[in-house]
Design a protein that fits this description.
The protein is mainly α and 283 residues long. Helices cover 44% and strands 0% of the residues.
Amino acid sequence: MTESTEKPEADPETAALAPALGPDELEEIDNILDDLRTRGEEIPQWEFCDGFLAAVVCSRRPIAPAEYLPMLLGDGAELEVAEGEPLPLLPAFADAAQQARFLELWTRRWDEVVHQLDAKVDRLDDERTYQPEAMDMRGAVASLTEEQRAEMDSDEEEIPSFGQIWALGFMFAVENWPEDWAAPRDKEAAQWINDALDSIVALTEDDTGKPEVCMFDENGPPSTSQARVEAFGEAIWAVYDLRQVWKSLGPRVETLRKAPEPGRNDPCPCGSGKKYKKCHGAG
């Protein structure tokens, strides 16, 4: 038996996929957002942006950047962009180069999320499984030295729970496009969507359970409850469900309402001056 010399076919799931954002690029996008906050106080953290991105990816209707980026980084007003033309400069960005770099990094993360959510996976430890950009801030702070913690702003707001900011970003998108997230008529599909959204909403709440694990450093001090870790896993599967349900249903079809038919003795709407029964209503 001779060994085949044919090259294996490229895996369509990995072909032509841009590399995922690495630590340096994630730090870069954090720095861009920090700079944006010098011109707009409402600019969110990257974790919030990543949750928002996931929701837009899962939305029933394809939403264009000209519509969703102003909602995330601007005043919410959709940008007017001619077909094939680049996005105009959003006020929060310092210049066109900064916006272009942000969009480049954003697009790479977008493509990665789409690829992960469309992959056939059945366990969370599969390297192809979608992983939200969620950070265990409580674990990060608990892992600091006493001197480092003393240098932190004591007036800082309460440290968010693991996955909380990501979930708030996801639900921010859902709440701003309610028509696109309205329950469909199909009762089974509607139940799937409601259950999935409930799993994500659960992460927007504070983790009040007993700290048992550290998601920031496996050897770090406990900062997150086991129940929270399980809820985070359920939220990941919920994103898969939302993606698949909306894809199977397709965009919402707008039904045209038929104009009420005039009475037989009313003037005919064609403008002839005759009664409807003597004109287009005859026969």
